[in-house]
Structures are given as C-alpha cells and as structure tokens.
Amino acid sequence: MAGYSGITAGYLILGDRPCLVETGTATSAPVVRDALASLGVGPGDLATIVVTHIHLDHAGGVGDLAGLYPEAEIVVHEKGARHLADPSRLMASARMVWGDKLDVLFGEMSPTEAARIRALGDTGSVDLGNGRTLSSHYSPGHAKHHVGLIDSGTGDLYVGDAAGVYLPQTGDLRPATPPPDFDLRTALDSIALFEALGPQRLLFSHYGPVDDVQATLERSAEELRVWVDLTRQAHSAGMDLDHAVAMVRDRTRERYAALQADDATAEQFELLSGAPSNVAGILHWLDRAQP
Ligand SMILES: [Zn+2]
C-alpha cells in the first residue's frame, strides 16, 4: 500500500475452495494476483473473496480482483454490498477526506457485478470445502458494515479493524476509531463477541497474526477507553480538532514503543492508526451521542 509493505494484509485460505480474506487497495491488486499465482492459485481457482468491511485499504481491490478471478463469489456485509457494486459515493466521500493523497494511498475502486456479490446478515458462512467453513459475525463499531470471520478448521479469527491495529515490530496496539461510524458501545460489544467466539489466534488486517488472544482483546478494549476518555476531556474543554489531537497524541505517546523507535516505524504506526482520524471519529461520535 502506497509503496509500503507490511501495512495491510490479505489472507489466502488454501483448501478445496480457496478463499481470499481482504484484497487490500486497488493499487495492490497486481501484488495480490502475483502472490496468489506463486501459491498455485490461478484465475479459475479462487472460490471466494471476502472483505471484513469496505474501507479502501481492505476492499479497494475487490473490483479488480473480481475481474481477475471470474469464478470467485464476492462476500461482504449487507450494509456494504451496494457500495461494491457502485463505488461512486464511497469514492466521492473518500476523496473529500483524503484529497489528492487518495490516488497514492488507495487508487480507485472498480465496480463489481452485482450478481456476483453475496450479502451477509448478522451471521453467515463461507464454504471452504471439505466441511470446513468460515463463519461471519457482524461486528460494528469501527464501521457499520464490519464483520469478523472465524475458520472452523483452525480457530483463526479475522478481526479486520474491529480490535484496532497491531504493529508486529513493537507489539503495540492502538484503536481504529475513524469517522463517521465509530461508536464506543458497539465497538466494545464487538470485542466481547470476538472473545466469546473463543478464537485460537487473531489475524489483524494491520498487521499479521497474534497468538495471545485474551490479553490482546483486553488491550483492544483498554485502548478504546483511553482514547475516548482523553478525547472526551478535550471535547468538554471546548478544544477544536487540532488542539484535541495534539493533547491526545501527547498524553498517549508513552503508551507506544513504536513512537519511541525509529522515524520509519513511528510513521508506519501513524499511517495505520492516525491520531487525527481517531480523534475526529471519537469527536464525531460524541457530538452525535451527546450534542
Ligand atoms: Zn483498515
């Protein structure tokens, strides 16, 4: 993504019915295609492409990959389905947020034929072949069209962004609370749901697998509370966005080894879970929840 590696993950589940979880950005589609080819998955082989949610770092490549893998069914939560079929509104609002940076960071999502899209409700399942399934569980909070997916064969839970972002280099975890959908209560409920599913491992979209499930999910909830508490203080003090971001950034700095590490690691962490986006999302929710 945007010339970085190790920023956003796609996972290939091999088996009778190969399944790709997350596509990454549109600009990453050729990278994903080459990676699948190197693992023996050709154009006719991929059975399913499923995304945890439709943000462009997770689903931006869906249209391009749907074209490259004509047999694949495209699976997404029902609140996101129409945006994959017609990305024009999604792209317009992303352009408002990102401006010219959009082309470098994400590229343009291509539309996916509506007939190839299967919409998930509160729960759903993807057939991985041989009696193995990937079960989806609606998990809003980060986004209103977010699902987590658990593999019956391995206990791997694909958490998308619902448990925040994890930086493997330092083991740091930070929340992901962007506008316009962030909601504390539903975000905490989703983390509790993930715990109740009893996963063996968490597979973060940013970035990579984590074995210590219990401690990591507890940390996810704690991170949410810390960022919400601080942003709420800034909000009560009447700070504008810039001052609120500066205050929260300052007061959370010592929590994260990445920010004490080299500039490149700090920059990568900030790109994955930007303080401005997190604080803006929490402020947006506070304004809605308690005007
Ligand atoms: Zn993301």
Structure classification: alpha/beta
Bound molecules: zinc ion
Sum up the overall morphology in one term. globular
The portion of residues assigned to helices is 40-55%
The SSE string, one letter per element, is EEHEHHEHHHEEEEEEEHEEHHHHH
Distance between the termini: 37 Å
Strand line-up across the major sheet: 6-7-8-9-12-13
Strand proportion: 15-25%
**How many distinct helices?**
12
Radius of gyration: 18 Å
**What can be said about the biggest beta sheet?**
6 strands, mixed
Number of strands: 13
- Which parts are unreliable, with pLDDT below 50 for 5 consecutive residues or more? none
Average pLDDT confidence is 95
Defining traits:
12 helices; 19% strand; binds zinc ion; 291 residues; 6-stranded mixed β-sheet; alpha/beta; 5-stranded mixed β-sheet
Architecture blueprint of SSEs:
Blueprint: E1 11-13, E2 19-21, H1 29-38, E3 48-50, H2 56-59, H3 62-68, E4 73-77, H4 78-85, H5 88-98, H6 101-105, E5 117-120, E6 123-129, E7 132-138, E8 147-151, E9 156-160, E10 165-167, E11 172-174, H7 184-196, E12 201-204, E13 208-210, H8 213-236, H9 241-252, H10 257-260, H11 263-272, H12 275-289
Parallel strand pairs: 2-3, 3-4, 4-5, 9-12
Antiparallel strand pairs: 1-2, 6-7, 7-8, 8-9, 10-11, 12-13
The structure holds zinc ion.
